Amino acid sequence: MRRLPDFALVFDFDGVVLDSATLKRQAFADMYRHRRDDEYRAIVAYLSRKGGQPREVKFRHIEAHILGQDADEARIKFLCQQFKQSVEQRLLQAPFIPGALNFLSSWHDKRSIYLLSATPQHELTSIVKQRQLAQFFIETVGAPPDKATGLGQLLVRQGHAAKHTVMIGDSYNDYRAARSNGTRFIGVAAEPHQSPFPADTVVINDLSQLEEALLSLE
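-> structure tokens emitted (218 positions)
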């Protein structure tokens, strides 16, 4: 059996470790269910394209560019709090992505493994602890900052070379964070024909295929 390359591994959370990306998109959309049909459809379309971004960014875009209304910081804070309350319990019950627990259990003490998410830091820390995942990650990094900045700071802080680091994510924002920092990247897409990544990207359906994908990066 070939030896798994000695990469540092940086995992996104929603849609990569926890099967919660769709859950969160629906929670966002449900907050605007009362809007006109055309506005609601535009919001759903936007959310389907913009995974991996902080919720504040999404709410500001929806409020200003789709609904055409002013959204001051008080309004954004209110929306974020409503969103947080709507997803907390669902996240505690969301299933894991197939292969995630097996991979993390097998490799967390053999490779440097990190978690990088657009979820606010305090919420991410809480859900990771409640789902009993903290022992798998050397460091859990939430927002702020944005993912590209967070990944760059993580590399410096932990002393990892970009060429020996792999970002594993399910959104184009994850891909962009990896590319902007010069790391390698593996995409996760349950439906590969709907992959948001460039054609030459290594893409897997779930984490049961991750070891094979990492071997392909040698």
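The first helix runs from residue 21 to 30.
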